[in-house]
Design goal:
With 289 residues, the protein is of the alpha+beta class. The protein contains 9 helices and 6 strands.
Length: 289
């Protein structure tokens, strides 16, 4: 399900800007874009996201700027490392009998000599500052997703109602199809027999065979049960997307069986309509958590 939320936290040390977006996806896919200072918190952040969202693509942007950066820049010299580099370069020059003087440029090319102030923030301190803002941001996201879910549920229930109406039509139509078949069969036999008396028992047997072949009562009962279970999931507080997906597969199986037994064009038409609604439901359910 889709959603967006953003929050900003500031104190005397730094400013944290969080933005989270969610998109439709069958599985949970987490994508993090963070300042390097938060790298140590990556697993904690992912664990938190998993506790909040079970399905969908989650994109979290997490940026931090120290107040010094906002005012005077954010880069500092890593003096302990600079002093170590200096001693090593002097020792290297002496051992190799190099006459060229040591230049500032020789140091500036060395790794991690100039670093961000953010590097000095400890993992625990960052988590204490970040976690309340992270929760606030996801609370806002969930409110937006809940509103979308309410709108989506209206559409899903409307499609369920159409399917139920189609099932009612089929249940009422099947006996009429058998009766109509009996009349057609009797008229045809009488026409072919040209006045010869037809054995009523034999006629009843043929009608009974057709009635058995076209009987879809069991399929309709199971389909009705699946529809009722599907509707109860709207009241569930746990993730229900996968349960809905499973029920839709079972419904589709029952409808296919009904279609294979159909001997009437109007019933076949209802089967096509029901399958179309099931497909639309399936597409929507892929996005439900």
């Amino acid at each position: 399900m889709t959603g967006y939320a953003q929050t900003v936290f500031s104190d005397k040390n730094f400013q944290i800007t969080l933005a989270v977006k969610t998109y439709n996806n069958r599985f949970l896919d987490i994508n993090l874009r963070m300042s390097s200072a938060f790298n140590l918190l990556e697993e904690r952040i992912k664990t938190f996201i998993v506790s909040q969202i079970s399905r969908g693509r989650v994109e979290l942007s997490l940026q931090m700027a120290s107040q010094e950066k906002l005012q005077n820049g954010n880069l500092v010299v890593n003096w302990p490392l600079a002093q170590t580099y200096g001693r090593l370069l002097i020792d290297l020059k002496d051992r190799l009998n190099l006459s060229a003087p040591l230049q500032l440029g020789d140091l500036l090319t060395l790794k991690d000599l100039i670093i961000s102030r953010e590097t000095f923030f400890s993992e625990e301190m960052l988590w204490r500052k970040l976690s309340p803002s992270l929760k606030k941001c996801f609370d806002g996201l969930q409110k937006m997703r809940i509103n979308e879910g309410k709108n989506l549920s209206v559409d899903l229930l409307a499609r369920i109602k159409k399917i139920e109406q189609g099932c009612t039509f089929i249940a009422q139509k099947v006996p009429k199809v058998v009766d109509a078949y009996q009349v057609r069969l009797q008229n045809r036999i009488q026409k072919l027999a040209k006045g010869v008396e037809v054995d009523p028992a034999r006629l009843a047997q043929e009608v009974a065979i057709l009635a058995d072949r076209s009987d879809v009562s069991e399929e309709l009962i199971r389909l009705d049960s699946h529809l009722k279970q599907f509707k109860t999931l709207f009241k569930d507080t746990e993730p229900v997307g996968k349960k809905m997906d499973f029920l839709l597969q079972e419904m589709n199986r029952e409808v296919n069986t009904i279609g294979s037994k159909s001997l009437d064009s109007t019933i076949s038409h209802q089967v096509v309509t029901i399958k179309a609604e099931l497909e639309k439901l399936r597409e929507q359910v892929q996005n439900i958590e």
